[in-house]
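Pipeline run #58 for the internal structure catalog. This entry was flagged by the ingest filter as a single-chain record with no existing model, so it goes straight to prediction. Upstream metadata was stripped on purpose; only the residue string is passed forward. Reviewer on rotation: M.T. Logging verbosity set to normal.
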Amino acid sequence: MSSTLLACIALLVAGASANIHLTVIGDTRRVVDLGVYAFSETGFISLKVHDFFIADPEAFLTNDGVIHHKEPIGFVLDSVESAQSARIEKNYAKGDGAEHRQCFINDDQVKPTLNRIHFPINGKKPSDISEVAFEATVTTPALYALFFYNCKGFNDTSSSYLRPIPVSFDAVAVMYNTDAAGVKHYLSMASRPLPMVYGLCALLFIALGVLWHRLMKGSPLNVHRVHYVMLFLVAVKSLSLLFEAGKLHHYDLTGTRSVWDLFYYVTLTVKGISLFSVLLLLGSGWSVMKQFLSEHDKKIMMIILPSQILVNISIAMIEENSEGSKHWSSWYDMLQILDVVCCCCVLLPIVWSIKNLRDAASHDDKAARTMARMKKFRTFYIVIVAYIYFTRIILVMIENSVSYDKTWLIKGGGEVAAALFYMYTGGCFRPMAENPYLEVDRDDAEELEVRKEVTGPQAL
């Protein structure tokens, strides 16, 4: 597993200095959304297209041997409201636009309200488009989406069926903004505040880690093994935020990836594993109410943790690829759903703990205390559900609805929500003598010792 992780991360770090890089071979899509970028009034885009080939090129040539203008083909930079609206435009062009044989750049339904920059392939000889370069200056601040469109064959009325016209090309787009001093900034304007945001959030989590360490030192007799796992989680979370801030800052200045990416993806994966481990162990009561993991708990961990590793690596690789890659949206949505499923599976040990406490309260002379503990675990369960729903669903919906220049606030809000969740969890399970979440009665302890003697050390 570790060798696979490092190999995947090496592929991510090996990228070149390109905001967008897309290679398609024999692609029949009529519209391809390559990605979005927020320009300032001093923006610049350089688009280089290599090895462009269209199937049956003779059918689209004029008498002079150039690709005719009747059915446009090329690239276009459109102003859009959000990345989601860019995907909606692409889906519309693939559906209703293609059905009515309305070319993407001529369709009033998807025309931008602010600005559009054309990079046409028409009017060139096939030999000239094997390698072609376009450059443009952007003076209208907005969020822009880069599209490839292929309207060849739209005027063919010999058949009601719109026959596919495969194309192949390798496109590299470099986009940046310049400041008053003429310094290039490769980060989108929507992402420029993120290095500072992540840096400040890292300091917040470092402070939480120091506070947690002091709590552990202040009550050493009540410290359990799970408390050390929680300390490790906060440390890894802090490091992942620091490395993400460094990664984005380096990319903003150079437009290239670096070793910061390697550190970030490693700590991001370890953080995800640690978070799920902490929630699973707290929900099962490991090292606190029992010194062993049940078979149910072990099976959940053996399924969820490897799944979370694969999901994290896959999402990272998908996000680093161009959105124009075939099936990009389908894979991304599927991985997001799998991530939510993993989060929901973490709740199972908590549900089992609540059920066990309810059963114990029904025939226990300490029913009041057991019911109190059950209610607290139920509250913890509700908080986890709210955290998952807010960070995995609500924030995504808000990000798709707010203005592009406010999306960095959503990222920061997600980290603040994580900090609040960590603080709540730490407050519930902090090491202290009379903690109702961690309280174990003497009879319960004797029962655990008996079970440990019966099951043997292999159950630990």
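catalog note: Residues 9-17, 440-460 have pLDDT under 50 and may be disordered.
catalog note: The two ends are 24 Å apart (CA to CA).
status: ready for reviewer M.T.
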